[in-house]
């Protein structure tokens, strides 16, 4: 094989690789655009629900309610996690903002990366709800981060997920939401356990309610 022929093959391979990377980038861009549109609709639906439903806002607040406030949607906070099922965990009473102490069990842990640093969050299951057919696959992921008390509610926020079929699970911090007690003191809200304290700012999801009107 001549040197010139080998050189041509290398050039062709490079061109093919660059073309593939360009296509991948375009697909990634299209996916990002679709995701942003999805989040826009998601937030419109939440605001519509707050204006319409009798909970969680009290009547006087609902009448003057305009919209909730969110961080800008960022793919950085839509992360691919590794789920590890917890074994032999005991039921415990989760602390709340009132004297109510619901029974929970640590169902598993989720490891994920943000800015090339690995973090973990525990995923819990409400023992009572786990007995209901329509809620038995629900996972509850309460967490705190360094935005709490400034841009977000001081008591932390929540993420809901379904039990994954395998070890992979997506965590979308852009859908992190406030406990209902943020809007109405009559509600009792679980307080994120200490193990779910993230030592970084999660600038994604819902901001504190005072920023929303």
Description:
With 213 residues, the protein is an alpha+beta fold. The chain folds into 2 domains: 1-53; 58-211, no CATH class. Helices cover 26% and strands 23% of the residues. The chain is built from 2 helices and 7 strands, in the order H-H-E-E-E-E-E-E-E. Strands 1, 2, 3, 4 and 7 form a 5-stranded antiparallel beta sheet that branches. The termini are far apart. Mean pLDDT is 87; it is low at 7-27.
> Helicity range of the residues?
25-40%
Distance between the termini: 73 Å
Which regions contain 5 or more consecutive residues with pLDDT less than 50?
A: 7-27
Strand content: 15-25%
What is the SS-derived class? alpha+beta
Tally of distinct domains: 2
Mean pLDDT: 87
Report the biggest beta sheet as strand number plus sense, adding barrel if it closes.
5 strands, antiparallel
- Any idea what the radius of gyration is? 22 Å
Q: What order do the helices and strands follow?
A: HHEEEEEEE
- What's the count of strands? 7
Shape verdict: globular
State the oligomer.
single chain
Number of helices: 2
